Amino acid sequence: MKKLISICVPMYNESENIDAFYKQLTTTIKPLTQKYDFEFLFINDGSLDDSVNKVKALAQVDSSVKLLDLSRNYGKEVAMAAGFDYCQGDAVITMDADLQHPPKVILEMVEHWEAGYLDVYGKRNERKGESFIKKKMSEMYYKLLIKFSKVEVLPGVGDYRLLDRVCIDSIIRIKETQRYTKGLYMWIGFRKKEVHFDAEERFAGETKWKFMDLLKLGIDGLTSNTTFPLKIAGILGGILSVSSILYMVYILISTLIYGTSVPGYPTLVTLILLLGGFQLISLGIMGEYLGKIFHETKNRPLYFVQEYTGETIELEKIQVPQRFAKTESV
């Protein structure tokens, strides 16, 4: 009996790319079909265009194409978690539908999986179509994350990877709702192998990742992998407190020796603004961590599904385990 490889493709408004992506993907993996069966699981993350209909049309001619239609837009991290829950393969490949992840790399990934590696990840050599500023900001962010994270972080590595079933089952057991999947890949461990590729430009359409989305993802990465920002706030608070005491002693001694001096208002205002700004920054850092705790304690399902492989999901059929709202077998 052939082993099954699932290819999970989160999508949001990718109607222009789906046909070209499917054609290139199926052509590339054709040599592997003698040894493996394939499942193509498209996870629709609340698309507003014709993406769902495009996938359904493919499913009409190819029974290995499946659609997992989430009830709304939850974000890519949740969409990938949904894909992990529903995929059935002995190995799972996650990739984008915009062809920035070249399908030809899959052949090399499968080779390493056959050699015994459980997590074969793609590492970008070049990022075509990205601005110089965006590349430099990304480099700076990864340097910061690598320096302070307790878990190893790999720069230039995203979600394009092959995961063995043991890795998928391990990630499914992680029940947190505030997810940073790139950190989870490293946290679970297992034998890893990198393959290099050049990230292509999008086949069609515009990127869905705006500056604020990337900023949020970056903050999630920092607050999910390390508590260092809280330590920084404490360290700076201690330094400012000691400096304030020393300055107070200096003012006291100066007053006793030279008498009261009226000048000093600019210094006083500057110190007040400095301390006030630091306090607000510290509260903001603590607020990020408290916000994550708040969302986790709600214990809500991670997502809801309204359709899976053509069958509409009725609310009464939904089972609600600890982490997600998953349907009965369909």
From TrEMBL:
**What is its membrane topology?**
Multi-pass membrane protein
Where does it reside?
Answer: Cell membrane
The EC number(s) given in the record are 2.4.1.-
Q: Which InterPro entries match?
A: Glyco_trans_2-like (IPR001173), Glycosyltransferase_2 (IPR050256), Nucleotide-diphossugar_trans (IPR029044)
Per the record's keyword annotation, is Glycosyltransferase included, yes or no?
yes
Entry's Gene Ontology cellular component terms:
plasma membrane
Q: Where is the Glycosyltransferase 2-like domain?
A: 6-165
Q: Determine the domain of life of the protein's source.
A: Bacteria
SUPFAM superfamilies reported in the protein's UniProt record: Nucleotide-diphospho-sugar transferases
First-tier enzyme category under EC = transferase
Membrane listed as a keyword:
yes
Question: Which keywords appear in this protein's UniProt record, sorted alphabetically?
Answer: Cell membrane, Glycosyltransferase, Membrane, Transferase, Transmembrane, Transmembrane helix
Q: GO MF terms on file?
A: glycosyltransferase activity
Indicate the transmembrane segments per the record. Answer: 232-253, 265-290
Q: Which family does it belong to?
A: Belongs to the glycosyltransferase 2 family. GtrB subfamily.
Q: What is this protein called?
A: Bactoprenol glucosyl transferase homolog from prophage CPS-53
Origin species, per record, is Kurthia zopfii
Gene (name only)? yfdH
